[in-house]
Specification:
By secondary structure, the protein is mostly helical. The chain folds into 2 domains: 97 residues; 128 residues, no CATH class. It has 11 helices and 2 strands. Strands 1-2 form a two-stranded antiparallel ribbon. Helix 4 packs across helix 5, helix 5 runs antiparallel to helix 6 and helix 6 crosses helix 7. It starts with a strand and ends in a 5-residue tail after the last helix.
Length: 232
């Protein structure tokens, strides 16, 4: 069946859940490849209540399972999962969950890592510019060296995601939020500079700053809910 001229993918949130779980059983079977282009067609394809239920159940089961038995090879699989299969696979499972929920938090921390990995030099530059103007403890909370190199920011991206599973969940989210706020501040600063010379980049950077700021707000809220025992 096609949707908008595209064939509807046969994958469902349940099948995606199974694939992520496949990344961490005892024998570590390799999940099959999923075409990233399928996500757009998938978006309208399932009952929202079912999608929401699977998102929450899968997120809770995954976090509980890994925290109970944080084997290094399992953690490595989870950190690199979106590199191997695409961020769209993670999006299928959790992106439509409400922002201030466990699946919403997991989606956003995976998304932060994906943003960094897609353009490490650019994101590092924005982060460093944000650190330059920061008057808060965010540079300390984020935990990246200042000034940072792209390699150091890439390493931080992995640490943030790994910390969700084998560290303090709230601290990992707060570090991610601090990073987003600093990169957002840097994007705003550079946008203002570009605007002063009439560059078209100003509007692009402004939109990026807004999105990073929103990610920071959501991750901060999720961290507070986790500490209260009410992030589900």
């Amino acid at each position: 069946m096609s949707v908008g001229g595209r064939r509807r993918p046969t994958h469902t949130p349940l099948s995606v859940h199974a694939r992520i779980v496949e990344a961490m059983p005892r024998d570590f079977h390799r999940p099959t490849q999923f075409p990233s282009a399928a996500f757009e067609a998938f978006q309208g394809g399932d009952d929202p209540a079912t999608v929401n239920r699977i998102a929450h159940e899968s997120a809770a089961a995954l976090v509980a399972r890994v925290k109970h038995d944080p084997q290094p090879e399992i953690l490595d699989r989870l950190v690199s999962f979106s590199d191997e299969h695409g961020i769209d696979v993670v999006a299928e499972l959790w992106a439509r969950a409400a922002p201030h929920t466990l699946p919403g938090a997991l989606w956003r921390i995976y998304l932060v890592r994906a943003v960094i990995r897609q353009a490490p030099e650019e994101v590092t530059y924005l982060f460093d510019r944000g650190v330059e103007t920061s008057t808060t403890i965010d540079p300390i909370v984020a935990g990246a060296p200042t000034p940072a190199t792209p390699a150091e920011v890439l390493a931080l991206a992995d640490l943030l995601l790994r910390g969700v599973f084998d560290g303090d969940f709230a601290v990992a989210l707060e570090r991610g939020a601090a990073f987003c706020r600093l990169a957002s501040a840097g994007a705003t600063t550079v946008a203002d500079e570009q605007d002063s010379i009439g560059s078209d980049l100003a509007s692009t950077l402004t939109r990026r700053a807004l999105r990073l700021s929103e990610l920071g707000v959501d991750l901060t809220a999720c961290a507070a809910l986790w500490r209260d025992g009410s992030l589900d």
